[in-house]
Every structure is written in structure tokens, then in C-alpha cells.
Amino acid sequence: MIKHTLRAVGRALSVGLRCSSDISGGELIDEWTNSSHLTQQASLYVHWPYCLRRCSYCNFNKYISRENNDHMMTECLQRETETLLQLSQVSCITSVFFGGGTPSLAHPSTIAAVLESVSRQANLSDKAEVTLEVNPTPAGKSKLEDFSRAGVNRFSIGVQSLQDEDLNILGRDHSSHQALKTIEEARNVCPGRVSVDVMFGRPKQSVESWEKELSELLRVCDDHVSLYQLTLERGTQLFRQVQGGEVTVPAEDVTAEMYQCARRTLHQHGFLQYEVSNFARHNAVSHHNMSYWKGRQYIGVGPGAHGRFAPLGEGGVLREARTQTLEPDVWIREVRQRGHGTRRRIQLGHLELLEEVLVMGMRMTEGIDHKHWELFSPQLSLSEVFGTSTDVQEWLQSGRLVLDDRGLRCSWDGLALLDSMLPALLVELERQIRQRLPRDPHSDGQTKKTSNP
To answer: Which of 71, 129, 193, 233 is most buried per CB count within 10 Å?
Structure first.
């Protein structure tokens, strides 16, 4: 059973590269013909770290703000955005995602200011996807039109549950009625571009109650649904409650059936599963998340944000995994001092990059096609890496995996078992890389100290 998921935007360019989202209808099209395209485009993730309260299950990087510092946060988000875009030297930002925390607590002018900063440094198409996570409270609902005017054209609504008792256990600060009203308003503002997050495997939940709840949600939701299995994270209130016997959660075989039930129900309502946890109809896929799953560059801005890009602006040629400073107060001080709050940089060697392409790409129902893999591994094909693996051969024969002229992907049944197959796939990838290719001096992912841009 899949237990973890990731959460997570036209003008012509002078270099002649067309933005992947800068086309009629907003369809996502790959136009890469060589590896240089991997460094000319990126998506942008912007982290708003503040919440009004901490949910009982959440271990994300979020804080309860002690004072109103929106002006300072806006100023620093703008500055770090400009700094990291200059470092990346990307020509085109294909999507923007405002996550958190609770970014719907931010003032719409903050969203507009960050998008203006992006446009000053890179091409940001009018059609580029700009998503904002929204907490379905009356305060969040009331600002949807203002957020739309600020440049947001897609909303991701954190419904989680339509059961008020469950929402209380999860520590959410909204009711099921407020969630339904927020969905309705969001659909009025951005029809066809509203995603709903819903969680299963919650305390006391059964397959029957989950199926009924999902059917109720599908009567009012828009064209995108993200399913998340509740994961008990150490250090959270819910983890302590379960460990202490105060609360019980469904057994693993029950949550596995919940997942399969959801897949069937969504399919019956016209939703196509395009990733482990994501379902869309009318082609309403998340272009931003597709960038992650396809191994494209992304730039992370804000406290605790993560990014993956090559810092061409300072002479770097290898992609780096970058993490920004976690604590907002410290991050603000660092951004004011040197333009960014990058705390850690790790150069990704050939093996590390391919590992990410494999892990993320296999989450998609389309898997990894040969042409896409060749962008990252021109010397070693998918068939050469996995074609002789005993484990892969077993999974091919059992119908869990498919390796053909299209590429490598999971079958319908195999996608639910991806977590159990990935370790062996990663071991085989490492074995083949080390056996067939010259030693990569950066393959161990050496940490590199942060330097001023």
C-alpha cells in the first residue's frame, strides 16, 4: 500500500524555447530535444510557514505566528525569489505553487508581489498554472476572488474529511459545511481548476463509511482529487494518542481496501488516475506536480522549502538539492543579510539524479518512457538497466510491472504495491550504473557549504 505522497506556473522567449504551459488550453507538452532544456525551465514552490493552529497529525514545517509580520515575510519572499531565479538562470517558470503552512492566511497582495518578482526575472506566461492551497474556513473562502485577482488560477482545498467528528480529532479548524461552501465558491471563481484533498485511514474509519463519504464529496467536487493516507508521524499529538491507546486507526489491510475502493469509485465518476494519489477528469491534471514527477527543475522559496536546480549563475553545472532554513525568524534574517536562506546544498551526481527520476516517475500511471529516461541517462537505457533483473522479470510475469516499447510503468494492480518494489528497483539501478559507467566523482552527493550568490 502506498503510504507516502508528496505534496506539492505566452510570451515568446528570446532563446527560442517555448514554455511547456504556454500553449492553447494549458495542455502540458514536452518540447525538450536536448539536455539543455533541463536547465532552462523550472517550476517554483513558495512556502508560507504560518498556521492559526497545528493539526494533530501534522509534522510539516509550520509555525503559529506570534505577531503580524506579513510585510516582512512578503519582502523576504520577493527577495529570495529574485535571488534564486538569478542563480538558476532559468528562462521560463512553468508553474507556481503556494503551499504551507496555510498560505490562504497571507494577504492577496503578498501573492501578487511574489508573482511580480517572478516576472521580473523570468518568463511567466499568463496561462501558467498558479496554485494556492486554501484552508476551507470562512476567512479562506472570503478571499478567493482577491487571490484570483492577484494571479492565482487554481485552488487546492484541504478538505481532509466531511465528518465533523473526524475533523475535530485531526485538529482541523473548519467544519464539513464550511468545506462544502469553500469548494462551491472556489468553483465559481476558478471553474474546472479546483483540487480537493481528502484523507483516508483516519481513526474509527471503515471501508463502508469511506465509500459513502467519497460519494458525497464527488457530488460537489470539481475535476481534481488528491487522496492521502493518514500517516502517523513521530512527535505529533495523534501519534502519541495512538501509541497510548486513546485512539485507534484502521489496520493496514483495511486502508489498502480503502485505497482500492477510492480508485474504483473515482473511475466510475469519470476520473482518471494519473499518479499514485492523484485523479483528474477533463484533463485537469496538476501541471506543477507533474514537473516534480517528471524530474524537472524546481525552485523552493520560503522557510524550509526544498528545491532541485543547477546554479548556473555561479558557475555550477550539476543539479543541487537545496533546503532553505526552517525557522521563519532565522530565515528572514538570512535573506536580509545575503538575499537567500539556503541552509544546505547537495550536489546530485548521475546516480542520485537517476534515483529521483525513477522514484518520482514510477508514481505516474504512464511511468517513465524511453525518451524521457534518455534525457537523464543517454548512455544506459531503461531496458539495459532493468531488462535482466530477476525481480523485474518476476513482476513482469505477475503483471505488476510493464516494460515495453513505451517504457517502464506499473500496472493497475502494481501501482498500489509500488512501495514494495521500489527498493529492489533502486538496488538494480545502482548496480547497473556502478558496473557499466565510469566512476562519477559526485555520485555520493557530497554536501557543499552555502556560499553567497
So the answer is: 129
